[in-house]
TrEMBL record:
<keyword id="KW-0812">Transmembrane</keyword>
<keyword id="KW-0472">Membrane</keyword>
<dbReference type="GO" id="GO:0004713">
    <property type="term" value="F:protein tyrosine kinase activity"/>
</dbReference>
<feature type="transmembrane region" description="Helical">
    <location>
        <begin position="30"/>
        <end position="50"/>
    </location>
</feature>
<keyword id="KW-1003">Cell membrane</keyword>
<feature type="transmembrane region" description="Helical">
    <location>
        <begin position="328"/>
        <end position="349"/>
    </location>
</feature>
<keyword id="KW-1133">Transmembrane helix</keyword>
<dbReference type="InterPro" id="IPR050445">
    <property type="entry name" value="Bact_polysacc_biosynth/exp"/>
</dbReference>
<protein>
    <submittedName>
        <fullName>Chain length determinant protein</fullName>
    </submittedName>
</protein>
<feature type="domain" description="Polysaccharide chain length determinant N-terminal">
    <location>
        <begin position="24"/>
        <end position="111"/>
    </location>
</feature>
<dbReference type="GO" id="GO:0005886">
    <property type="term" value="C:plasma membrane"/>
</dbReference>
<dbReference type="Pfam" id="PF02706">
    <property type="entry name" value="Wzz"/>
</dbReference>
<dbReference type="InterPro" id="IPR003856">
    <property type="entry name" value="LPS_length_determ_N"/>
</dbReference>
Amino acid sequence: MNEEIQNDEISLKELIEKGKEWCSYLLSQWKIIVLAGIIGTAIGLTYSYIKKPVYTASLSFALEDEKSGGLGGALGLASSFGLDLGESGGSVFTGSNLAELFKSRLMVEKTLLSSVLINGRSISIAEMYIINNRWREQWAKNPRFDTIKFLSGKPRQEFSRDKDSILGVIYDNLSVNSLSVGQRDKKIAIISVDVVSAHELFSKFFCEGLVKQVSDYYVSTKSQKSRENMLILERQTDSIRKELNSSITGVAVANDNTFNLNPALNVRRAPSARKQVDVQANTAILTELVKQSELAKVTLRKETPLIQIIDKPILPLKKEKFGKIKGMVIGGGVTVLLIILGLVIIRAFKNILNKKS
């Protein structure tokens, strides 16, 4: 028992001695460590000057859909008691599906090809991105890309392969580095969209444009069936109304033709009687169609979801800059740690080689 305690004490002493030995070694290399710290601090300071500030445009909104109100209320009530019942995966406009819709290439490209007004000049957001990142200066030497321009209103299907490739690169950059969509709290049905970029106006215009495109798509899709039904009823109503007007005119013409007709010639009154039957039938049909058309309009208004914008990006946007002190501390600290690690590894290898020799 005493031998085990003695062995433990010897091991602890050896550990302390080893620690002192390593500290002495690192102190003997203080010049290298200090020089590395100075170099790292200078690198961090330089990076803080080179690094451009980034601007964050944030927009929050809420979706109100009467059709899904019952289920949404049940899920909200369950979540308030700490129960997670999950969300219906059938709708593209719920939960994580909605976030993916915002990041989809379709929505991002539609936003990029939409136009904004800057200094009285209309320009597409894609063209704005290209100018901000100085891509045209790189393309100036390549005639293949020099003439490429993204003008708003041009049909997407007419784009060349090069245009598709450029849009693909812009989409990848934005979806990975700039765009963030989600609910800040699962219990709150408020969705936040954040766009981060080194250009203030681009962040603002792209954020607002993306929400508009998704909103239009959302409203159009959710109310598509009701809108189609209403349009069909309106066409049928117009058609029956024309037939009714034609029948009324036909009755008048037939009555004119049978004016003061001999009572013995009743067969000549048949066209007028047939026209009157058509008038009565078309009147009944038109009355029902008008009723159904008005009901369809009410249904469309009821099923058209409301998108309520809560907060919009307002200039000046939130600005985040890599500070000088932060750059110096991180640069110096990381460099010193790397140098110390390198010195330790080198000394350890030397000790191993010396023991083998």
